[in-house]
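pinning this so it doesn't scroll away 📌
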Amino acid sequence: MTEPDYAYITLTDVTDVTAGEAAAFARWLRDSFVPAPHLVWFVSSLAVANGEQDPWPLPVEGGDDDVAAELRRHLDSVETP
């Protein structure tokens, strides 16, 4: 889904996507598809459901474990009611 300055990609499955699964895709997107690594940002459905809509930057380097750690840090930062 495109917006003026960026595009969204939503990862869905029959069950929720784990941080590890999302990290593998995000790292591939960053390293293999996007023209510059700093262009990949993310937000979680948990954050959006709790009123937070500002995306977080994906780490510009590091492997799946590093990206998954950042995704988990994001999830841990979301305040739920």
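📌 and the second one:
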Amino acid sequence: MSTTYRSTVAVGVAAAALVLTGCSGEGKPAAEGTKAPTAPTSPVPLSPTPTPSAPPGLEGSWAGITDGKPVGLSIGKRHAVVIAGAQICQGKLADPVTLRLSCTDATTKRTEGTIESNDGKTLVVAWKGGPKDTLKEADPGPGPSASGAVRLP
């Protein structure tokens, strides 16, 4: 595998992890002139509503090359992120075989995808009006180093 491909997949997996874990700007001080949020006036349920999961064997990170460009797909708790070249799309698993995403640019090549096959090692996604991605399960690698940086093999 080329270093460029590994770097692209690593960046894609890291970005997907941030999106899938719900990383947001919460906890930052309110901007000047804005009110801080107030506590809700209605009671909040004590037990959280369970988040539905993706079908078995679908959650995780997938990587491949389509039309000569690296493609990364991460799915977790029915949320999905695709990074294909410079295109970044995110959204949800609408049902066990349909991905509905919105992209950061104006293209619609990867906004509605159908999972054609998944054997746990290879995932094939056909995008309506776009390409067909054949992706392999991404190797999570050795994990973060002591400094928190991801090490590339």
